Amino acid sequence: MAVRSSMKLSETMYVWILASGLVLAVVPRSLAGRFLVDENLETARKLPQISPSPSPVLATSPSPSSSSSPQSWVYVVGFGSVLLVVMALTALGIIFLRYKRKPTAVSPWKSGMSGHLQRPFETTVPFLKLSEVESACEDFSNIIGESSETIVYKGTLASGTEVAATRMKVPAANWNLQLELSFRRKVEALARMKHTHLVNLIAYCSEEEPNFVRMLVFEYASNGTVFDHLHKKESEHLDWLMRMRIVMGAAYGLEYMHHELVPAASHLGFDANSIFLTDDYSAKIANFGVMKMAVAKADTRQKGYWFGPRIVGYEDFDGDSDRFGPDFESNLFIFGVFLLEIVTGRPPHDEVTGHSLVEWASEYLADPKMVWYMVDPSLKSYNHDELVALCRIASLCLSPKNRRPTMRRVVFMLAEVLGITPELAAPKSSALLWAQLELEDEF
């Protein structure tokens, strides 16, 4: 029980003070005396009489007519005072908590963030600060590619490893939960895809302040794409042996995606434009358009497919469109088109005639003795047996879906004819290996 003391303010007023120094009540002197008598009655009875003269407070016995009303007022005043103290302490506590919990700036896309996005972003790919990527890319001065959704910079890490940094163009104001989830899934999917014949993800960058940024850092293949070398005069010509090595490298890369990756994945836009070449002309498939993993297919028909340019696919013989989401068998069909492109040097679609390469080659593929008419005239030499084998494999890939071979079967047939092992198809030095060693040393 709190200790109280009284102080006489005047002839008619008393003040009760808590031991803490807080004023509890100010009441008339006559009521104060009666309150003391009621609360400390047992104590007063045990106290000896100090003076023969009666105390004006303790000795006075209230009359029946006046005792009820003053005593009720004392209880009302006491209860009200305690209530005021509790309310004051509560208000002070609320003010203290609000002052202690300082407001923090929250990005607009984070409002309503829940579930998967609330957990820390964990991946096996190293994280790079924006300043590190900016330094590697020479203040983002070397632009090597750009689309409506991304911009690509060439850079060099401290070890001398060349990289391609892809930056998303979406500003912070337009960034939302769906895009953030897509970005994280993209990083998680690419982080586990490590193969000699893929353009591998080396690191990623994700920052809010002072500048909003989302970037993917890939290993860099310096010799451009197969499409450039086949169809652009300013690019270096590919001879037959170089083309066969590229075919085997691309086949090994797709085999990894279809059969070795768990869960397996198909490629969204496989063609000659998606195959990049290293210094020694080894093939590396760019998986910028990799589909959602086989566990649950994503709807890629939505307009906000931001992380890569939309790839126009092909119509296969079953009449199914591969424009938005090719599956594994559709990858086989497109690989067959790629084989014809390698052999003939013709693009998949003739812009002049409007005919497709498959339509043009169909009459030659029907007769093995006629396949030599399809050979790229710029080739000075070629292996006839290999040509016949490639055309036969291409025909199998272009067959109706239920008759197409698996990618593993295609690799077996190609390796048997061409005699190019994974070691011969691989690049002489792995940029990914050196990049990973450098980043691990920094951490």
TrEMBL record:
<feature type="region of interest" description="Disordered">
    <location>
        <begin position="47"/>
        <end position="70"/>
    </location>
</feature>
<feature type="domain" description="Protein kinase">
    <location>
        <begin position="138"/>
        <end position="418"/>
    </location>
</feature>
<keyword id="KW-1133">Transmembrane helix</keyword>
<keyword id="KW-0732">Signal</keyword>
<feature type="transmembrane region" description="Helical">
    <location>
        <begin position="73"/>
        <end position="97"/>
    </location>
</feature>
<protein>
    <recommendedName>
        <fullName>Protein kinase domain-containing protein</fullName>
    </recommendedName>
</protein>
<dbReference type="Pfam" id="PF07714">
    <property type="entry name" value="PK_Tyr_Ser-Thr"/>
</dbReference>
<keyword id="KW-0472">Membrane</keyword>
<keyword id="KW-0812">Transmembrane</keyword>
<feature type="compositionally biased region" description="Low complexity">
    <location>
        <begin position="56"/>
        <end position="70"/>
    </location>
</feature>
<dbReference type="InterPro" id="IPR000719">
    <property type="entry name" value="Prot_kinase_dom"/>
</dbReference>
<dbReference type="InterPro" id="IPR001245">
    <property type="entry name" value="Ser-Thr/Tyr_kinase_cat_dom"/>
</dbReference>
<dbReference type="InterPro" id="IPR011009">
    <property type="entry name" value="Kinase-like_dom_sf"/>
</dbReference>
